[in-house]
Write a structure and sequence with these properties.
The complex is a heterodimer of chains A (80) and B (185).
Chain A: E1 2-6, E2 8-11, E3 17-23, E4 29-35, E5 39-40, E6 43-52, E7 55-59, E8 70-74
Chain B: H1 5-13, E1 18-20, E2 33-44, H2 65-72, E3 73-77, E4 83-85, E5 90-100, E6 107-112, H3 115-118, E7 122-123, E8 130-131, E9 136-145, E10 151-153, E11 158-166
Antiparallel strand pairs in B: 1-5, 2-3, 2-5, 2-11, 4-10, 5-9, 6-8, 6-11, 7-9
The chains are: A mainly beta (80), B mainly beta (185).
Chain lengths: 80, 185
């Protein structure tokens, strides 16, 4: 299921690439370089793969700079 | 055929794949499972002396890689600071996780690098990614810094990923080769 995650967007290393920075459930940040097609405004288009205790496990469109594909985010970080 | 996250989890649940310690749910991607770096690294001590030629001949009868590695490398137990791998440096590492692929599971796997490290120039295997059906042990990583900068390797970092594949049929015998149950010693 698609999940739109709050993120901070900046320009990537090439045209059509964007850098999305999201906040994880434990207050850390994950940075991932994605296609501009994975960004809608200030939302990163990811995929929900699980939920637990107010947190949502999302799969990122690409591997993050720290090597993660999946990260826990707060439910409140997901919006339409 | 490559297993998806759900198939990997199902195979782990019914012991067709054994990963110890068991992976967290965030270790999966859609088609792979991330593994982490153990504390053990083998650092080569190949001091070069002018006029002295050192040649390895793996085809020699009785050659044992373990004997060579013990003689020419030191086992380093990493602390939280990790180890800084220099450009063009080669070290041996292992995954924290023990992996078992019981032969009857009809599964094999490939260990592959992570793009987050690859873009820094870090490779984690050298042309030998196959984890054969029947394999048991931590996975040995041939870590090479192809990049221009030093990179810090820290225990527990996501260092590689396993991609599981279904075998066509059951192998006649389990994998009991030279590297069965790869060890750090």
């Amino acid at each position: 299921m698609t999940a739109k995650i709050d993120c901070t967007v900046s320009e990537g290393l090439m045209p059509n690439e964007k850098i999305a920075k999201i906040e994880t459930a434990d207050g850390k940040s994950e940075v991932v370089a994605v296609s501009h097609k994975n960004i809608e405004g200030n939302k990163l288009m990811a995929f929900e793969v699980g939920r637990r205790e107010g947190k949502v496990l999302i799969e990122l469109p690409r591997e993050s700079a720290s090597g993660r594909w999946r990260v826990w985010v707060k439910e409140s970080a997901i919006g339409g | 055929m490559i297993l998806t996250d759900r198939e990997i989890q199902a195979a782990i649940d019914c012991k067709q794949i054994i990963v110890d310690p068991a992976p967290d749910v965030d270790a999966y991607s859609s088609t792979s499972l991330d593994l982490t770096l153990s504390r053990a690294l083998r650092i080569w001590k190949m001091e070069r002396v002018k006029g002295v030629e050192q040649i390895i001949c793996p085809a020699t009868e009785g050659y044992q890689f373990a004997d060579f590695a013990k003689e020419y490398s030191d086992l380093k137990e990493l602390d939280g600071e990790g180890y800084v791998i220099k450009p063009q440096e080669f070290v041996l590492g292992w995954t924290e996780q023990n992996i078992e692929l019981p032969t009857a599971s009809r599964l094999a796997a490939r260990v592959e690098g992570k793009s987050s490290l690859a873009r820094l120039g870090i490779g984690i295997h050298i042309t030998a990614p196959t984890i054969h059906a029947g394999f048991q042990g931590p996975i040995q990583l041939e870590i090479y810094n192809h990049g221009l900068l030093k990179v810090r390797l820290v225990p527990g970092m996501r260092v590689c990923q396993l991609i599981f594949e279904q075998c066509l049929g059951t192998p006649e015998k389990g994998y009991k080769g030279q590297f069965y149950g790869q060890t750090k010693n």
